[in-house]
Each structure stands twice: as structure tokens, then as C-alpha cells.
# Entry
Amino acid sequence: MEHPFNRILWVTTLLFLCQILGGCPSFRIDRINDGEVIKPLPQELAVGKTTLADVLSFYGAPSDIMDMQGHFSLHYQRTFYRGGQFSLGIPLSDVFKISPTFDAAGNLKRYDEAIFIFTPNGILSKMAYEKGSDYPLWKTYWQ
Amino acid sequence: MGLLILIILLSGCAVIGRGKDFRSFDEQNLTQIKPGQTTASEITKMFGPPSQIVKLSNGNAYIYNRSLSKVTGIWLILVTLVNYDTQHDRIVFFINQSDIVTHYGSSFKSDSAAYGTPF
# Structure
């Protein structure tokens, strides 16, 4: 049978550790999404045939419009941010006048994008699409 | 003992928040837009001043934008989890050099902004 003193010692040690470390080590995870999911390019869209009205009808209003000195482009964009931070600090300033801390942080911003470039009379001349949020978080961050 | 550890780990606070980048345009007015007929001044009368005007070689684009953000945060002793979701309502009008609307497009997604976790 466990000696009562051992149990008291164990609980006291745990409470002491919680008191010392409580609030000192911390881990933060952020997720920030801006915009809706951008649909992949449908097969019906064709360079030289598709019109501005077709793209507006399928994708709606773009995030941005740019003049390209005659041509113009529509940008559809969603940003997807993931961030993490680990902090470890030992509050010793009352005793030793210093409080050592260690912070490690990282973040990754990925983009889902579709871009359509039109001739001055509104005919699609180029288009591109990428779904950045499909890239794996950890591998993409370190590569 | 397990309960004690759970209480220590879970004692914290939570927050939910909502932020709105408001513009008063009314999507119902889109039913009155007739490409080839509606003028730029009618657009500004119905929708107010645009958020942005883009100069194009054969006219202008009027962009109307507003957004809704929802924030969820949980602060525990050791872990903080924060989630932001922002969605937009957008209308764009293409206006030719005669100040007539030639095309328009719209997306209304702000209602889909959601509270959630970062996972």
C-alpha cells in the first residue's frame, strides 16, 4: 500500500510545478482565412472564346482588377494563414533579477488564386489557377 | 488527480468577436441594372460611392466591397487557439467611355463567415 506521505509529496510537487510553470510555457496556434474557396477552372472556359461576362457569371466579382495597358485582368484570391508560436519563460526576476525566455515562432501564408487576362474588348486571352491551400502545411513550411 | 490536472489545463477564457467593414450598398438594386443602358451616375445613386475605381483603357471599373470577420479565441494556461474568418460581399461594374455599364458581377459571401477552431 502506498505510504500517505508519498502521495502528499507527489501532490505537493505537482502543485508546486504548476505554480512555477503555470503561464510560463505556452503554445499558440492561429488560423486566418480571408475569402471564399476559389473554384477550379471549368472546362467550358476557353482562351479566345470565353468573354468577360462568362467569367463574371461563373466566378462573380473579383478580389482585384488591374489595367494592363490595353488588356486587363481579374484576380480571384483567397489567403490562408497558419501560424504557431511556442514560448517558455521562467519568472525568476523576483529572485535573480532575470527571467530567461525562449520563443519560437513560424507562419505560412498560402494562396488560392485564379487570374483571367482579357483583351480590351473583353475576350479571355490567358488564365491561370493555383490552389495553394492544398500544399501540406509542415512540408511546405520547411521546403 | 486526473480531474485536478484537467481543471488546471482547461482553466482559461474564451472570446468570440465579430468585425464588420460596412458599406451600405443594397444587393436588391442589382435587379435594376441593365447592361448597355444603366449609366455610371445611376450606379452611384443606387450603390453610393464605390470602394475603389480602376481606370481601364476603355473605361472604368467600379468596385464595391464590404466584409464580415468572425474571431474565435480560446486561452488556456498552456495553449492559445485563435481562428479568424473573413468573407466579402463584392460588386463590380465595368463602365465604358460613354459612362454606360457594359458588364457587372457580384459575390455575396459575408454570411458564410464562421466561428471555429484553427484545426
Summary: The first strand of chain A starts at residue 26 and ends at 34. Chain A touches chain B through 37 residues (CB under 8 Å). Residues 24-142 of chain A form one domain.
